[in-house]
Structure formats: structure tokens, C-alpha cells
């Protein structure tokens, strides 16, 4: 089976972890600091703060930007549930805007329609590693005095005109979950250019302690730290990231080139000036008589791993349909009736897309097999 996920774990990661174990400095410390320094070089971000995962990074972003219960944050429903959940953790309200039918990212025109007096921020998600239209979103945010939190959890290596994603908004958040292009096992990071935000995040991440440490607490914060063990895995991964990204890009380019003329088949479009991070290569069927479910079955029958990811938009998740009945914050905040929300493009893409393996372990020969099987399926 050609796998769509296969973390590239080798001797370097094992050596890094062994060194940490031998040092007995297991908690977050020098190895995490080293990772932050190197990730800052990789992304060009002024400040990098590692976290326990991408979800806690997003939650810290919401807190640090002082987004309050009842405030609205506009985001996409075509994403992992963590994006909008992080808004809900503090009683803020996710407002869903529809996506662009080709990039699968927030459509700026649809975002603008959703802005109200209660809107405090926009949370674009660079879905599958495809950079969002940050220029349009940033202009809009500036016009309406809104903050931007970039969910770059899937977007390692993605950039716009050479600038790494995560650096366009006030705060960018990354995930280093086991399946991501760079993994800690579990881990995440926040990037920001703002010194004050960095200090606030450092404090909130560590039980409200001042960055100097000790037992002086100026905020009610959290324990969203990581460990030196996880950071050692990440540090070894970061060394390999450029090579792993090259392999993903090569594999995705094979699909783009070899399947460009295939009728009824489409791949996600990257906006002008954008560089895709290729966390996921999503194919799409535009044929009414060929469902994504059928394609996935056929791919699997030919030893090609595949799946559908966000076929249920976030607003249709059972937890969202009953928010006003059971969720703690509903005692203080009236949430929208999400059963009335409809983002037709998100629903359509959700139904018609399927994942194609491109991870670094997939060879050019594997890609040729995938190309020929997809050609057979679509004809
Ligand atoms: C788009 C997106 N946002 C947020 C997250 C949350 O990251 P984590 O799983 O590290 O908490 C993920 C991870 O899967 C993600 O894909």
C-alpha cells in the first residue's frame, strides 16, 4: 500500500531523543530553545514560541489578542475542527464564511459579508498547505481594525512571494502533530513579529509566570509547554524539512503535470505568487457519475492509500448543532443556530475531494503508478 502518511523517522531523531534522555533534562529547556531559534530562521519569523500542540497555540493566540466571550471571529468551515474550537474555548463565536472553489481557502468577498460590529478577528486557514489570499484579508482587516490569526497548522514550507505563511497576520500557529510535514509527535508553535504579544504568550503558556520564571504569577495561564524530548524529534525533523518538502513538491508536480488534461479531475489551485506546502494533495472529481467514495475504493484496490478529510463542514458537526443546549459558555453567550448556516462551496468540495499520497516516502515510480490508476478511474 502506498501510504498517504509515513513520518520520516530515522537515526537522527533517535539520537536526539537519546541525548535528551541521557541528559535527564526532559522538560522544556535548551533543546526547545534551539528549535525555536532554527524555526525562526526557517520561517523568517521574529519570535517563535513552542507549544504542546497546534490547538493550544491557537487558543493562546485568541487569549493573547484579548478576544472576549461574545466576540466574533470569522473562519472557514473547511478545516480540522481545532480551528473553530479554539475560538469557542473562551466563549468567542466562530462565524463561518465560504471558501473559494479552486483554492479551498477563505474567499475574501465572503469574509467581508460576515463582518459585524462584534467581529474582532479573522482566522484564515492555509488548508492542506495552500497559502490564503493574505493581501486581500490583511487589507480588509486593516480597514475594519481586525486582528488576524493565521492557522498555518498544515502549512510548513508554504509562502507568498517568498514570505513564509504565519508572518502575515498578528499571530501564526503551527502544528507538529505526528502526521504533519514536520513532527514532534505532539507539538506546535506560535510565530509573531510583535514583542508585547510574544511576552504575553510566553506568560500565558506557562501558568501566567513572568518570563523570568520563578513562582510569581501575573495572569491565570495554562500549561501549554512541550518537552525537550519532543523538541529533539522536531530539531532532527527541521534539518530534513527542506529535503522532505522537495520530495512532496516533486510528487505533487508529477500529478499536476501528468493529469492536467484529465477530464473531470482537478487539483487545488495555488494563488499567484504562492508556494504550496503540500501537506496534502487533494484531487477532486467534477464528474457527476464518479463519486469521491468510488475513487477512494478504486485507489485502495490498487494499493494506493486515500481518504476524504473534511466531508462534514465544522458548522454541521453534532457538537456545534447543540452548542446552546450544553456548552458552558452558552450560559453567557448566545451562539448562532448553526443548523441554519450553509457554505455551499465548502460542502461541495467536502464531498468531491480525496487525498492522494505525496509524502516524502512516495517514490517517482509510485507516482507513475498513481497517475496511471487515476487515468483509468477517470476514463
Ligand atoms: C488546520 C488545523 N488546525 C489546527 C490543528 C490542530 O493542531 P494539533 O493537532 O497539533 O492540536 C490541526 C491539526 O491537525 C489542523 O490541521
Account of the 3D structure:
The chain has 379 residues and is of the alpha/beta class. The protein folds into 2 domains: 11-237, Type I PLP-dependent aspartate aminotransferase-like (Major domain) (Aspartate Aminotransferase, domain 2), CATH 3.40.640.10; 242-309 and 346-378, Aspartate Aminotransferase, domain 1 (Alpha-Beta Complex), CATH 3.90.1150. The chain is built from 13 helices and 13 strands. The protein has a 7-stranded mixed sheet with strand order 1-9-8-5-4-2-3, with helices on both faces. A 3-stranded antiparallel sheet has the order 7-6-11, with no helix packed on it. The two termini are 23 Å apart. The mean pLDDT is 98. The structure holds pyridoxal-5'-phosphate. Residues 53-55, 79-80, 82-83, 125, 151, 153-154, 175, 177, 188 line the site of pyridoxal-5'-phosphate.
Summarize the structure.
This protein has 379 residues and is α/β, with parallel strands linked by helices. It contains 13 helices and 13 strands.
Topology diagram in text:
Blueprint: H1 11-23, H2 30-43, E1 47-51, H3 54-64, E2 72-75, H4 82-88, E3 93-96, H5 108-113, E4 119-123, H6 134-144, E5 147-151, E6 159-160, E7 163-164, E8 171-175, E9 188-192, H7 195-205, H8 228-258, E10 265-267, E11 274-275, E12 281-285, H9 292-301, H10 318-321, H11 323-326, H12 344-352, E13 353-356, H13 364-378
Parallel strand pairs: 2-3, 2-4, 4-5, 5-8
Antiparallel strand pairs: 1-9, 6-7, 6-11, 8-9, 10-12, 12-13
Helix pairs in contact: 1-8, 2-8, 3-4, 3-7, 8-13
The structure holds pyridoxal-5'-phosphate.
